[in-house]
Amino acid sequence: MKGVEVNVQRVSRSYGDFKALDDVSVTIKKGEFFSLLGPSGCGKTTLLRIIAGFDFPDSGSVEFDSKNILPLPPDKRQSNTVFQTYALSPTSPSMKT
User: Fold this and answer.
1) pLDDT digit string (tens) for 51-96?
2) What residue ranges define each of the domains in the chain, with the CATH number in brackets?
């Protein structure tokens, strides 16, 4: 089976006085289908950015198959990101209205 187990433990992230994530823990088993749902501003994107390596937690850990991935750059992690808007730049055709 392809993929990795993702283990997020006690992750917190603040932006100034705003606490985007507060002691979040989740385990996604290898091969498991996982959805992250919630209202705007609840921390979904922040958590995904931390898992992908585009942001870092203030505290907590993120492991892939029991290996700490926080020091790894995004291109060295076994993760993928599909952006909601896939344009490469603001002048790309998909961004024009």
Assistant:
1) 999 999 999 999 999 999 999 999 998 887 776 666 555 665 555 5
2) 6-95 (3.40.50.300)
Nearest to 2 by CA among 65, 70, 52, 61: 65
Which residue type occupies 71? P
Task: With beta carbons less than 8 A apart as the criterion, state whether 35 and 16 touch.
Answer: no
Place of tokens 């952006």: 83
The Cα–Cα gap between 79 and 48 comes to: 10
Tokens of 60: 């907590």
Backbone angles phi, psi at 67, to 5 degrees: -110, 130
- Residue 63: which of 54, 55, 74, 51 has the closest Cα? 51
Tokens of 85: 């808007």
Report d(CA 44, CA 30) in Å as an integer: 20
pLDDT (tens digit per residue) in 41-59: 899 999 999 999 999 999 9
